[in-house]
């Protein structure tokens, strides 16, 4: 079992985190991201408490020791079930357990969890109270929206944060957009509702004792640095996936003050060779890993050919790291 990071370490790591993203931030993606940043906090895709407790799907919690500090995000709305799921996650060695109160997907709504829980703050408080009991020294955090549907964010968000603080939560991530559960698709919910950074900033002024991270629309490391003048942490989503090196490549130096020389993009690719080899030896497919590498050279000359070679060749029989080396000269 991997020794967990101390609370202070995870709090520092959350100055910059990569958001939990379904179908994207799996263990292969996180291993790649860790090569670019020793310090940024990495999150799993959302794992539902029913899948762990009722479905026994503990394989969803598999991660590589190199990923630390790494947090697991849980979805659910049954306090007892979330407590059991939290215990399972802690036993697997995660450094943080996060509760999803922000996902707007239909599947999440039908399960009465995710963003719809913004309408039930006392239920969320019951959930995190029991989760903290199960977590022991491992921090439990909450990722939320600023409101849902016709709620008034300037009224709802402060009250929600206060309820979380009263329940013992000391660290939260605020996605600075409303979620429209009726009328917008999950994809539209990531773009159409306007961002309200000033409201998130105001929460830090109102709750100076809490560690608050902002999420939503962060496109560059420069934006991360700007937001850190207001907030304790910044959580980056799609930009960290589609252009990971732009976000993570210089993050250790600029965000965490680490003087170690960072790997170049090419060195990151070469550092994946052993990992890819082990994955294939265990019966995996190279495409399961290379899909996360497509954005490594985003904005660089030859990036299009890099993506094309990987995309076209990764699903062919026998494809392995040789395909990656074939794409690299681009």
UniProtKB/TrEMBL annotation:
<dbReference type="GO" id="GO:0000049">
    <property type="term" value="F:tRNA binding"/>
</dbReference>
<feature type="binding site">
    <location>
        <begin position="215"/>
        <end position="217"/>
    </location>
    <ligand>
        <name>FMN</name>
    </ligand>
</feature>
<feature type="domain" description="DUS-like FMN-binding">
    <location>
        <begin position="18"/>
        <end position="321"/>
    </location>
</feature>
<feature type="active site" description="Proton donor">
    <location>
        <position position="103"/>
    </location>
</feature>
<dbReference type="InterPro" id="IPR001269">
    <property type="entry name" value="DUS_fam"/>
</dbReference>
<keyword id="KW-0694">RNA-binding</keyword>
<dbReference type="GO" id="GO:0010181">
    <property type="term" value="F:FMN binding"/>
</dbReference>
<keyword id="KW-0820">tRNA-binding</keyword>
<dbReference type="InterPro" id="IPR018517">
    <property type="entry name" value="tRNA_hU_synthase_CS"/>
</dbReference>
<comment type="similarity">
    <text>Belongs to the Dus family. DusA subfamily.</text>
</comment>
<comment type="function">
    <text>Catalyzes the synthesis of 5,6-dihydrouridine (D), a modified base found in the D-loop of most tRNAs, via the reduction of the C5-C6 double bond in target uridines. Specifically modifies U20 and U20a in tRNAs.</text>
</comment>
<keyword id="KW-0560">Oxidoreductase</keyword>
<feature type="binding site">
    <location>
        <begin position="20"/>
        <end position="22"/>
    </location>
    <ligand>
        <name>FMN</name>
    </ligand>
</feature>
<feature type="binding site">
    <location>
        <position position="73"/>
    </location>
    <ligand>
        <name>FMN</name>
    </ligand>
</feature>
<dbReference type="GO" id="GO:0102266">
    <property type="term" value="F:tRNA-dihydrouridine20a synthase activity"/>
</dbReference>
<feature type="binding site">
    <location>
        <begin position="237"/>
        <end position="238"/>
    </location>
    <ligand>
        <name>FMN</name>
    </ligand>
</feature>
<dbReference type="GO" id="GO:0050660">
    <property type="term" value="F:flavin adenine dinucleotide binding"/>
</dbReference>
<keyword id="KW-0819">tRNA processing</keyword>
<dbReference type="GO" id="GO:0102264">
    <property type="term" value="F:tRNA-dihydrouridine20 synthase activity"/>
</dbReference>
<protein>
    <recommendedName>
        <fullName>tRNA-dihydrouridine(20/20a) synthase</fullName>
        <ecNumber>1.3.1.91</ecNumber>
    </recommendedName>
</protein>
<feature type="binding site">
    <location>
        <position position="143"/>
    </location>
    <ligand>
        <name>FMN</name>
    </ligand>
</feature>
<dbReference type="InterPro" id="IPR013785">
    <property type="entry name" value="Aldolase_TIM"/>
</dbReference>
<dbReference type="Pfam" id="PF01207">
    <property type="entry name" value="Dus"/>
</dbReference>
<feature type="site" description="Interacts with tRNA">
    <location>
        <position position="190"/>
    </location>
</feature>
<keyword id="KW-0285">Flavoprotein</keyword>
<keyword id="KW-0288">FMN</keyword>
<dbReference type="InterPro" id="IPR035587">
    <property type="entry name" value="DUS-like_FMN-bd"/>
</dbReference>
<feature type="site" description="Interacts with tRNA; defines subfamily-specific binding signature">
    <location>
        <position position="304"/>
    </location>
</feature>
<comment type="similarity">
    <text>Belongs to the dus family.</text>
</comment>
<dbReference type="InterPro" id="IPR004653">
    <property type="entry name" value="DusA"/>
</dbReference>
<keyword id="KW-0521">NADP</keyword>
<keyword id="KW-0547">Nucleotide-binding</keyword>
<feature type="site" description="Interacts with tRNA">
    <location>
        <position position="100"/>
    </location>
</feature>
<feature type="site" description="Interacts with tRNA; defines subfamily-specific binding signature">
    <location>
        <position position="187"/>
    </location>
</feature>
<feature type="binding site">
    <location>
        <position position="175"/>
    </location>
    <ligand>
        <name>FMN</name>
    </ligand>
</feature>
């Amino acid at each position: 079992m991997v020794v967990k990071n101390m609370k202070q370490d995870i709090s520092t790591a959350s100055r910059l985190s990569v958001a939990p993203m379904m179908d994207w931030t799996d263990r292969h993606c996180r291993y790649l991201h860790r090569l670019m940043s020793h310090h940024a906090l990495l999150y799993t895709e959302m794992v539902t408490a029913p899948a762990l407790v009722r479905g026994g799907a503990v394989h969803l919690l598999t991660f590589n020791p190199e990923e630390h500090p790494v947090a697991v995000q849980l979805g659910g709305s049954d306090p007892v079930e979330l407590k059991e799921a939290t215990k399972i996650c802690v036993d697997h060695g995660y450094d943080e357990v996060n509760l999803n109160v922000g996902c707007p997907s239909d599947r999440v709504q039908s399960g009465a969890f995710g963003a719809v829980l913004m309408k039930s703050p006392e239920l969320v408080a019951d959930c995190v109270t029991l989760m903290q009991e199960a977590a022991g020294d491992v921090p439990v955090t909450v990722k939320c929206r600023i409101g849902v549907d016709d709620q008034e964010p300037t009224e709802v968000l402060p009250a929600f944060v206060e309820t979380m603080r009263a329940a013992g939560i000391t660290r939260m991530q605020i996605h600075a957009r409303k979620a429209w559960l009726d009328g917008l698709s999950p994809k539209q919910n990531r773009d159409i509702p306007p961002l309200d950074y000033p409201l998130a900033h105001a929460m830090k002024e109102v709750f100076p004792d809490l560690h608050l991270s902002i999420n939503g629309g962060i496109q560059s490391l420069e934006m991360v640095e700007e937001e850190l003048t207001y907030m304790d942490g910044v959580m980056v989503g799609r930009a960290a996936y589609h252009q990971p090196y732009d976000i993570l490549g210089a993050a250790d130096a600029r965000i965490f003050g680490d003087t170690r020389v960072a790997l170049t993009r090419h060195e990151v690719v070469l550092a994946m060779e052993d990992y890819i080899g082990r994955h294939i030896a265990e019966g995996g497919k190279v495409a399961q890993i290379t899909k996360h590498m497509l954005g490594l050279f985003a904005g660089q000359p030859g990036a299009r050919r890099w993506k094309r070679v990987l995309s076209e060749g990764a699903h062919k029989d026998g494809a392995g790291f040789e395909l990656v080396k074939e794409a690299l000269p681009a």
